[in-house]
Amino acid sequence: MVKIKNDSKLFERAAKLREEIRLHEHRYYVLDRPSISDAKFDRLMNELKRLEAEHPEIVTPDSPTQRVGGAPRKGFETRRHHPPMLSLDNAFSFEELERFDRRAREVSGRQDVEYVAEHKYDGLSMSLHYEKGRLALAVTRGDGVNGEDVTPNVARIEAVPNRVDPAKCKRLGLDGDLEVRGEIIMPLKAFAKLNEQQEELGGKHFANPRNAAAGSVRVLDSRITASRQLDFFGYYLLAGGRTPFARHSEELEAISALNFKALEWKRCASIEDVKEYCRKWEEKREKLPYEIDGIVIKVNELWLQQELGFTSKAPRWAIAYKYPARQETTTVREVVFQVGRTGALTPVALLDPVAVGGVTVSRSTLHNMDEIERLGLAAGDSVLIERAGEVIPHVVKVVLRGKDRREVKVPELCPECGSHIHKSPDEVAYRCVNAACPAKRRESLIHFASRHAMNIDGLGNKIVDQLVSTELVKDFADLYELGVEKLAALERMAKKSADNLLREIAGSKSNDLSRLIYALGIRFVGERTAQLLAEHFGSIGALEKADEQALSEVVEVGPKVAASIVEFFSERANRNTIKRLREVGIDPKNAPKETVSNRFAGQSFVFTGTLARRSREDAGELVGRHGGKVVGSVSKNTDYVVVGADPGSKYDKAKSLGVRILTEDEFEALLEGKLALAQSGTDEKKPRGRAAKAVSGSTSRSAKKSTQTLF
Ligand code: IVH
After folding, report:
1. How far apart are CA 420 and CA 431, in angstroms?
2. Which CATH entry fits the domain spanning 85-322: 3.90.650.10, 3.30.470.30, 2.60.40.2890, 3.40.190.10?
3. CATH superfamily of this structure's domain 7-66
4. So where are the chain's domains?
5. Which residues contact 459 (CB under 8 A, 6 or more apart)?
6. Which is catalytic among the residues 49, 120, 204, 685?
7. Quick one: which of 119, 207, 256, 266 has the most CB atoms within 10 Å?
8. CA 225 to ligand 1 centroid distance, Å
9. Of all atoms in ligand 1, which is nearest to the CA of residue 125?
C-alpha cells in the first residue's frame, strides 16, 4: 500500500477512491454490470476505510463508507415536529360516530356539522417540508414529537414532488415554505410483487403492505426506497405550523393543486352522509388497489376545529372509523411442504377453517423455514392470520402455543418423489434435487400454459396433474403431440373439451418468441427480461448459444441473470426440450435489433415536440440501438427530455423536476458522442438496475447457484 505523505495527496487519494467506489457500486447495484471482482472492490473500500479511520478529518458525509455497503450509518437523525404529529381516536361503531357528532354539534350550536370523510390509508405517516418550493426535509412520525430524517429516501419516491410550483403557491396565498403531512403506502400489487421477489432472492418477507412501506423507507440505501413503487397521499397542509385555510376541504384541494396525489375524500353535510360514505367503502374496499383500515372523519370548518381542540393524544375534531380487522385466530393443524417449479419446498400451514372478512381460509403459506423460525411456529399452535386485499392470507404471529405442539421439520425426502432434499448455504430454500420430480413438471407446465406465457386456456391444474401423473406429458413438447382420445379419457374431460384444449394448444404454436422464452421458466427471467432477450437474440437457437458475455450485452441483464440462462441451457434435458419443440414446429423468430453500442445503457429518454432532423420513431430507434430506452412520460428517473418545436407539457414537467433537457442539436451531438452523458447516469442518484438487486437487502455480492431443469 502506498504511504501517503502529505495532506493534499491524502485528500486526493480519498477523493479518487470515493469516486471509483461510487462508480463500481453503480455498476454493481444499478447497472448489474460490475467491471471488477468483489475482492478488488473490497480492497478499494478497505483502503478508503483505513484512510478515513486514520484521518477522521477527511471523512465527507457523502463518502461511500458512510452508507450501506460501507460502514453503515447508525440510524437516522432525529427531527422535532412542530406541531406534534398526533394520533386519532378510534370509533368501532356508528354509535360512537354519533357521539362524536353530538359533541361537535353542541360546541358549534348548529343543527348539522359539515365533515370531510377520507380514506384511512394504512401506511407510514410522513411529514414533508418544502423550503422555497423545494423538498427540504422528510421526517417519519416517530413518537409524534420526534421523528427520523429520511429525506434522501423519500426524495426518491415518484409520488413525492421534489418541488412545488411557486406560481401555484402564490395563487393559493402560500410562499413555498410549507409542510405537507400524509401517508406513504405500498399498493397491494407492488406488495405482492415485492414479496415474490424477496422469496426468490431469499430476502426478508414482509407481513403486510404497511410493514413493507415502513421497511422500504427506513433503509440506509435510498435505491431500495426508489425501487419499491411506493405512493404518497397528502392529508394536511401547514404553513408556519398552522393550517392556512378556513376549511379542511380547501386544504385538500390545495394539496391536489400542488401536484400531490389526492386521497379519496368527500364533503359530508351531516353525520348521516358520513355513515353512508363509510358503508359504501366498506363494501368496495376489497377492490381498491391499496389497503385502507377505515375512514377518517374531520370537522370541515377550521374555527370549529379550534373550538373543539385537542386531548393530549388526538384532536377532538377528528375520529377514525375503523373497519373490522381482517384478522382472525385459528389453529395450525399441520404444516405440509409443497414443491414448486424450481424444486423449492414451501411450507404451508393447514388451518382449522375460519372466516376472515367474509372468506373462508383453511391454508396459509409460511414462505420458508426462516419465516417459521421468526414466528416461532409449530403445528398445534394458535395463530393470528390476516388477509390484505386480495393477497393470500398469511400468519401474523403465534398467539398461543399448542399443548401438544409438533415442531416443523423439513422432510428429508421430497414429499412428491422421495428424492433427496438439498439446501445450499447461500439460499433460504430447500430444494428437491430430482430434475424429473413430478411436482416440478406439474408446476413448470402450469407456468408454461399460464396467461402471460403460452396462454393455453383450459390447461388448468386438474388436467395438468393428470397429464403429469399418467406420464402423457413428460416434456413441454409432448403437449403438442397429444391426441384427442387420450385427452378425452382423462377425468373431467369429454370429447368436446378435449377438442377445445387441443385447439388452444395448437394455437399457442404461433406465440411470439418472448412468450416462449418466458414460458420456459428460466430462473430470474421474467416477462420483461424475456422480451429484451427476444429482441436482442431473435431466436431460441441464438439465445441457447449465447455465453455470459454475450448475454450481458443485453440492457438490464446482469451477471446473475446471465449465469442463470447459461446454466439453464447447459442442462441436456433442457436443450432436448428445445429441440423437440422445434420438431413440433415451435421456433418463433424475431428480427434481431441491431445494437450499435451500449453508450446509453440504463438511460431513459422522453421526446416532446416536433423534431426537424428525423422522425421521433427514428430517433427512438437510434436510442435503442445505443442501449437506451424511450419512455412515454417524464418522471424523476428520466435522464433526458429531448425537446423539439412546440413542445407539450412534458417540457414543463421536465423543467419542474429538474430533468436534463436537450435541444435537438444537443441530442444529435449526444448520438455522435460529441456531448458528454449526464452525470446522473454514473452517480447513485437514479435507480435503474432491476429492483431485484436493490431489494435483496443482502450484503452478499455472489450469485446463488442451483441447477435448473425443466422436466
Ligand atoms: S389525520 C391529527 N388522515 O392514521 C390527525 N390520518 O390512526 C392526524 N392516516 O397517524 C392524522 N389516513 O398515519 C389522517 N386520511 C388520513 C389518514 C390518516 C391514514 C394515519 C396517520 C395517522 C394514523 C392515526
Report:
1. 8
2. 3.30.470.30
3. Helix hairpin bin (1.10.287.610)
4. 7-66, 85-322, 327-400, 438-583, 604-710
5. 445, 446, 449, 479, 501, 504, 505
6. 120
7. 119
8. 22
9. 13
Q: For helices 461-469 and 438-449, what crossing angle results, to 10°?
A: 140
Tens digit of each residue's pLDDT (9 = 90 or more) over 573-619: 899 999 999 999 999 998 756 677 778 877 889 998 888 888 777 78
Hey, is 130 helix, strand or coil? strand
238 in ligand 1 pocket by Cβ < 6 Å?
no
327-400 has CATH 2.102.10.10 classification: no
Q: pLDDT, tens digit, for every residue of 454-474?
A: 999 999 889 999 999 999 998
**49 is a catalytic site residue:** no
What element of type H or E holds 506?
A: helix 495-507
Summarised one tens digit per residue, pLDDT across range 165-220 is: 889 999 999 998 999 999 999 999 898 888 877 766 666 678 788 889 998 998 87
* Cβ–ligand 1 contact at 118 (below 6 Å): yes
Q: What is the pLDDT of residues 324-341, one digit of tens each?
A: 878 889 999 999 999 988
The string of pLDDT tens digits covering residues 475-518 is 899 999 999 988 998 888 888 999 999 999 999 999 999 999 99
Residue 475: all three cell numbers together: 416434456
Give the burial class of 291: count Cβ atoms within 10 A of its Cβ; 0-12 exposed, 13-18 middle, 19 or more buried: buried
- Residue whose C-alpha is closest to residue 508's, from 576, 458, 564, 436: 458
How would you classify residue 678: left for phi > 0, otherwise alpha for psi between -120 and 50, otherwise beta?
A: beta
User: Cα–Cα distance between 269 and 289 in angstroms, integer?
Assistant: 28
How much distance in Å is there from the Cα of 88 to the middle of ligand 1? 7
- Per DSSP, the three-state class of 682 is coil
Ligand 1 centre distance from Cα of residue 226 (Å): 24
Is any ligand 1 atom within 6 A of the Cβ of residue 275? Answer: no
